[in-house]
Amino acid sequence: MENIKVLHIITRFDKGGSAQNTYLSLLGLRKKNYQLSLVSGLSLESEMKHEEIKAKEKDIQILESEGIEFIQCPFLLRRINVIKDLKAFFDIWRIIKKYNPLIVHTHSSKAGLMGRLAAKLAGTPIIMHTPHGHVFFGYFGPFKTKLFIIFEKLASRITDKIVALTNREKKDHILFKIAEEDKFSVIYSGI
User: Fold this and answer.
1) What is the CATH number of the domain that holds 51?
2) Pair 152, 178: CB distance under 8 Å
3) Is residue 60 one of the residues assigned to a domain?
4) Looking at the domain assignment, is residue 16 inside a domain?
5) Phi, psi (rounded to 5 degrees) for 7
6) Does a structural domain hold residue 85?
7) pLDDT for the residue 71
8) Count of alpha carbons within 13 Å of 67, Cβ hemisphere only?
């Protein structure tokens, strides 16, 4: 079987659950002979301790030893910064054009929005997204929450499959009319 190219994009490859889930998924997919790359923003905002930074550096070394390329996108940060966000978007688009993957799989909100739009503009045949939770209930104020919901609804239109980690996450996305039920799959996290 020919190696299928899959490019994963995550906002931060830090100590959090979404990064750990993505890391374990990549290692599992590598065993299935996928050709994998991971794009990540800088993890400077995550306030990791020295030993946590060292552990993440080791995780990156393990990925690379398994043939999974790790690509740092220096302008992809969690907080909103219009200039850096535009630079990150075009960096992601260029990476997608260069690697020409069959599948782009995004993780978390910001990388999810940027990555899916960049993948669509780059002509990627299959676009997937794993939200790793959501911010629909009181995480931000009402205006910001409404804005996130609108962006997620728009991004879901160019997404082939949304992978929820729990049935509750899937139900919440359906409740807020992010996408139709048939667009979702639930794959439980092994963490």
Assistant:
1) 3.40.50.2000
2) yes
3) yes
4) yes
5) -110, 120
6) yes
7) 96
8) 12
One DSSP character per residue, 135-185 reads --SSSS-HHHHHHHHHHHHHHHTT-SEEEESSHHHHHHHHHTTSS-GGGEE
Contact 39, 92 (CB under 8 A): yes
pLDDT exceeds 60 at position 1: no
Strands (E), 62-122: 69-73, 103-107
Q: Give the per-residue pLDDT at 49.
A: 76
pTM of the model: 0.92
* Burial state string for 101-130 with b = 16 or more CB within 10 A and e = fewer than 16: bebbbbbbbbbbbbbbbbbbebebeebbbb
Q: Is 91 helix (H, G, I), strand (E, B) or coil?
A: helix
Within a 13 Å sphere around the CA of 49, how many CA atoms are in the beta-carbon half? Answer: 2
Q: Which domain holds residue 59?
A: 5-186
pLDDT at 190: 66
Do 72 and 95 meet the contact criterion of CB atoms below 8 Å apart?
A: no
CA distances from 27 to 126, 142, 147 (A): 20, 38, 34
The domain tally of the chain equals: 1
Calpha distance 81→30 (Å, rounded): 34
Q: 């190219």: which residue's tokens?
A: 5
- Looking at the domain assignment, is residue 191 inside a domain? no
Question: Cα–Cα distances in Å, from 146 out to 32, 63, 98, 176?
Answer: 39, 37, 35, 10
